[in-house]
Specification:
alpha/beta; 7-stranded parallel β-sheet; 33% helix
């Protein structure tokens, strides 16, 4: 069984309805509307609940950050890379996120929260040398993991090559990238690849990328935290896509010059 803890994590898992719950445990000492809502959700979903002293929840979750609620449920099932080949039902261009060895669970959770907020269609994680989708990462994502389509792969380079074969452009982000992120057309089918904390992208992953983008920094620090950098670029992609979807009469800016092939 997976152990989920925290108000957002448990509430979003119940709302998404993807997992099979064994039970939800709430702290006897905490009584408030938010926790009562979770208990009501459990009743509607037929999920068993019980109350225990806060110390018992701390022991189960192995942290004091459980906010008075812990859930025991089946592990989240990952997709295969092939599941991300299909275009969205809406016919919109695909926007994917691939993580090349992000090691900190808090960063992983923050990245997944950003991906969900920016409307990413799928996320690629690696099985080895990376933070697992642990309860800490799930809590840091504020429950976003329950709504995202997540594939877990063994070989990221091979998976990116497979995406390229499906006409999805591979866009890496690096402080030495040749193009500023806001001067690049992100409206086509593309996957944004984010690297490890500090070290960035592996060399083979860099070589696989079709383009390398950078975020210009005006201060003394040379780069952003990986989750902050992803937020900057993914929300720029979301902005460009909204702008491209507007009728010509409603557009308030000149058409962006297309990078060769990206919008095709």
């Amino acid at each position: 069984m997976d152990v989920l803890f925290g108000l957002h994590s448990v509430e979003e898992a119940l709302r998404a309805g993807r997992r099979k719950f064994d039970q939800v445990i709430v702290a006897r000492e905490r009584q408030d509307p938010r926790l009562a809502r979770i208990v009501s959700q459990c009743k509607l979903a037929g999920v068993r609940t019980r109350t225990e002293p806060r110390e018992q929840l701390t022991q189960i979750a192995q942290t004091t950050a459980h906010q008075g609620v812990v859930a025991l449920c089946r592990p989240q099932e990952f997709l295969a890379i092939e599941d991300l080949f299909e275009a969205p039902a809406s016919g919109a261009k695909r926007l994917l996120l691939a993580l090349d060895g992000v090691e900190d669970p808090q960063n992983l959770g923050a990245l997944l929260r950003v991906a969900d907020g920016a409307g990413v269609d799928g996320v690629l994680l690696t099985e080895r040398r990376a933070a697992p989708l642990s309860p800490v990462a799930v809590k840091a994502s504020a429950g976003a993991t329950e709504h995202l389509r997540i594939a877990c792969v063994v070989n990221l380079v091979r998976s990116l090559e497979q995406l390229k074969e499906k006409n999805i452009w591979v866009i890496g982000l690096d402080e030495r990238g040749e193009t500023d992120y806001d001067r690049f057309d992100l409206t086509g089918n593309c996957v944004l690849v984010m690297g490890r904390e500090g070290a960035g992208l592996h060399d083979l992953v860099k070589k696989t990328c079709d383009h390398m983008l950078s975020i210009p920094m005006a201060g003394g620090v040379s780069s952003l935290n990986v989750s902050a950098a992803a937020a900057v670029v993914l929300y720029e992609a979301a902005r460009q896509r909204r702008q491209a979807a507007l009728p010509a009469a409603e557009s308030v800016s000149k058409p962006r010059k297309k990078q060769k092939g990206l919008g095709s």
